[in-house]
Amino acid sequence: MSHKSTPGSEPIYDARTLGLPKMLVLGLQHLFAMFGATVLVPILVQGYGLPLSIQTTLFFAGIGTLFFHICTRLKVPAFLGSSFAYLGGFSAVAALDSGAYATMEPSVKLQYACGGIVVAGLLYVILAAVIKLVGVKKVMRFLPPVVTGPIIILIGLNLAPNAVSNASSCWWLALLSIAVIVAANIWGKGMVKIIPILLGVVIPYLVAVAANALGATAVDASGSVIPLMDFSAVAAAAPIGLQPFFTDFTGSIARFDVTSILVMAPIAVAAMMEHIGDMSAISATVGENFLERPGLHRTLIGDGIATSLAGLFGGPANTTYGENTGVLVLSRVYDPKVVRLAAVYAVVLSFSPAFAALVNSIPTAIIGGVSFILYGMISAIGVRNVVENRVDFTNSRNLIIAAVILVCGLGFSGGITFPVGGAHVTLTNLAIAAIAGIALNAILPGKDYEFGSDVTEGRSGDFGRY
């Protein structure tokens, strides 16, 4: 397939046409898009009392992304960052206080939680084997656009409250970030039009530094007034430092126990559905059917083994990042080499505690402003997935499936928790929505979707793209 690559007009499929300096900057934009959310996972897990390392998290986000690209024949422009789906599992393991867990040190609990993540990643490989055995078309009969479209929509909608919460810490700064992104994307020319997210972080950050020097304040989650920026962690951090699994291998390597596996592994159900939704979103964005070429089985293997590898050495589960899909939408640069540059940056920066602290000094409001755009883009891609596949909502079957998915995804905000093996397993709202949608699609008669078929064939009229 031949792709045009005129900057600012057509999508760019080969970033080498822009030159190396611009490619390096584009990779930096993807780094900024994933950094806040990826680092937030270990910060939250540390709040549960488990010492999950930020450096380890960054290292395996980069290594996992590079491994994913190798598995997918260097074709899919996806970045693998920390998965939020497993936060409930970390919290549950941290709270275990019976049997061997009663007197267990938090660092050892983390090792057992990571053992569960290793098993969860292997479940991806099992699904990939099923797809390879029976074919993607038979599997995708259970995952048509009427199921995946609403799930993609829910991914963005579920993240939306986080964007509002972050932005509310300092609304004027969040609005500045939004304004910079919109202005760069709509009215920008050349390179400016391609890097709106990076500009939406850097320009407000410089403004925030000046405002902080003049005494500007923000509001934290408890409603207390705090300084707009805090550089104390930057001053205390060492410029260079090794990840914990290098300095204390025995204390970082995963351990395995049935209880922790039963807590962590079932979360893979939600994560796999999120993966399929993200692959659908990236395919819709780029205009390539990555579910068919290089194949869903390859993307699942790449994501699953990357997750298991991270868990084995004390890191969190990985997942394909919707934030970076949003960057693809805005920049219209679809070359996977740019994403691999971001992965290399992540690996290099994982050796610098000082840099991690510096990026962490970005005000929460700026992250909120960027998230306003990126999270909304994810939901909009879900709508696009439904529209471009001509899902017929005059068919009551399709209407019922979409309705149940959306209500489950928005209604079960806290998920469903039930006891398994002496612990509690939580199915997130996305997992519930996915299971409900897949089940209804399998049970209800009247399937009108065939994977890989021409959706325009047999249509009596075409009102164009809208």
3D architecture notes:
The chain has 466 residues and is mostly helical. The protein has one domain (16-441). The protein contains 20 helices and six strands. The strands form three sheets. A two-stranded antiparallel ribbon has the order 1-4. Strands 2-3 form a two-stranded antiparallel sheet. It has a two-stranded antiparallel sheet with strand order 5-6. Mean pLDDT is 84; it is low at 4-8 and 456-466.
Average pLDDT over all residues: 84
| Relative strand content | under 5%
Percent of residues in helices comes to: 55-70%
* Through-space gap between termini: 25 Å
Q: Please work out how many helical segments DSSP would assign.
A: 20
Order of SSEs, N→C?
Answer: HHEHHHHHHHEEHHHHHEHHHHHEEH
Strand order of the largest sheet: 1-4
Index terms:
globular; mainly alpha; 6 strands; 466 residues; two-stranded antiparallel sheet; two-stranded antiparallel ribbon
